[in-house]
Design goal:
It is built from 9 helices and 2 strands; from the N terminus they run H-H-H-H-H-H-H-E-H-E-H. The chain has 270 residues and is mainly alpha-helical. A two-stranded antiparallel ribbon has the order 1-2. The two termini are 53 Å apart. 14% of the residues are buried.
Length: 270
Amino acid sequence: MTIVCNGHAILLAFLLFYFPSMLALLTGGEPHDMTVLSIIMSTTYTGLFCLNYFLFVPHILFSKDNKLLFFTINLLLVVFLCSLLPLWLETHGGLPRPRHLACSPLSASQWIMSYLRFIIRDVVMMILSIALAYAMCLSKNREAMTRRVLELEAERHNTELRRLKAQLNPHFLFNSLNNIYALIAINPEKAQKSLHDLSNMLRFMIYDSENASVPLRKELMFIEEYVNLMRLRINPSVRLDCHLPENPDETLTVAPLIFLTLFSNDSSRG
């Protein structure tokens, strides 16, 4: 997942910074020196973007939460690049000129304006490349945090479900089997019905409860069978009433075993 995100970031930087230069180079719409300068500056913007996306933002701004160091490093980089590139261009033929001024000498005011436009444009583009890296890192970081929260929530639900199953399995299952065993000699038909209810409950717990949701009808049937087995454990003189909807809506669903804790607690108090 990280490799895919990094690949998308590099592709986006290429399209934003290199595509106009490559298009001008292929179509010949700009003088050659302007196109070369555009490619050089595109490489500069892309390098600044990659430094922030892969190094400065995740390891300085996010991990260490050092905003001062982050802004200081980027400020020094921008000042250094805006000072170095014009000096390098002066030693390699001077600042590029537009097509209509390519063959005429520049006055001092024209040279200063050309220099200022060059510097202002570069500063804006460098700041935009840094901001883009920050925005993409922030989006990736929030997406990872959201995914982690969802994973923790799902793990918590699974843990609660396993805990509910563990509450039912140890004492209820063996007590029900003992009661059915004792009931076989007294009332075989009732023992057979109780064994059938227990079989349905176990099938529901093993297979149906693995799903995220189950039909409300199945959940109510599970509760009814649970209460019927609980009746085997109490004295016949004790009254145990359980009123459940007879024909629930088939489209309604609930989380499996969601009512088990309520019924088991009530039964234990009884």
